[in-house]
Amino acid sequence: MRRLIGLILFWVGVGMALVLIFPKSFLLVCIAAGLIIAGYNLFCSC
């Protein structure tokens, strides 16, 4: 279950990062980076 949640969080973060090619606020950039990091950690941890 952790891997599935990690995969979902990772791709949501990647999608947000792609939308934010022209960042509108620093907070959204931080949220996207946080989701990518959290998703990677949840997916890749054993």
Characterize this entry briefly.
The protein has 46 residues and is an all-alpha fold.
State the order of secondary-structure elements, H for helix, E for strand.
HH
End-to-end separation in angstroms reads 12 Å
**Radius of gyration from CA coordinates:** 11 Å
How many strand units?
0
Report the helical percentage: over 70%
Mean pLDDT: 82
So what's the overall shape? elongated
Let me know the largest β-sheet.
Answer: none
Compute the number of helices: 2
Poorly predicted spans: none
> Which structural class is indicated by helix and strand composition?
mainly alpha
How much strand?
Answer: under 5%
Structure, described:
With 46 residues, this protein is mainly α. The chain contains two helices and no strands. Helix 1 packs antiparallel against helix 2 (26-44). It is elongated and about 35 Å long.
Attribute tags:
0% strand; mainly alpha; 46 residues
Secondary-structure map:
Layout: H1 2-19, H2 26-44
